[in-house]
Specification:
5-stranded antiparallel β-sheet; single chain; alpha+beta; 2 helices; 5-stranded mixed β-sheet
């Protein structure tokens, strides 16, 4: 039995389709969801979101956000969601290097909010690179 998976970012709906299974990077580890799962709301962290449809696995790199599960649907609200095929590895590496450099330069005198934002940018870039490299080297 299929479950409706919806992935939404601030830019709009990124994905919406019936799927057989979803695995998300929860704040406490991976969380698998099948149809008729118990309802829940939890946070997600940057990482790899996988879903299975008709025996095929598909992957998105996601940022931080929220996961809402009902008996009929799975909704992912994230600040980033990129299909593995759409990840520009060179651009992500450049963004990662810039975030790391800014972090090193500001680590001693930046506001805590700035440090957290830079750490999150690094985590999101790493998640995208992980998805891109892992999936294309199998």
């Amino acid at each position: 039995m299929a479950t409706l998976l919806q992935i939404v970012t601030p830019e709009g709906k990124v994905f919406s389709d019936k799927v057989d299974q979803v695995v998300v990077p929860g704040s406490e580890g991976e969380l698998g969801v099948l149809s008729h799962h118990a309802s829940l709301v939890t946070t997600i962290k940057p990482g790899e979101l996988r879903y299975t449809k008709e025996g095929q696995e598909h992957v998105f790199a996601v940022g931080s956000g929220l996961l809402e599960v009902t008996r009929e649907s799975v909704s992912v609200l994230s600040d980033l969601a990129v299909n593995e095929k759409d990840i520009d590895e060179a651009a992500v590496e450049k963004a990662l290097e810039a975030a790391r450099k800014a972090y090193e330069e500001r680590a001693d005198d930046a506001h805590p909010e700035d440090i957290v934002a830079l750490q999150l940018a690094i985590q999101k870039a790493m998640a995208q690179l992980h998805v891109r490299r892992r999936r294309h080297h199998l």
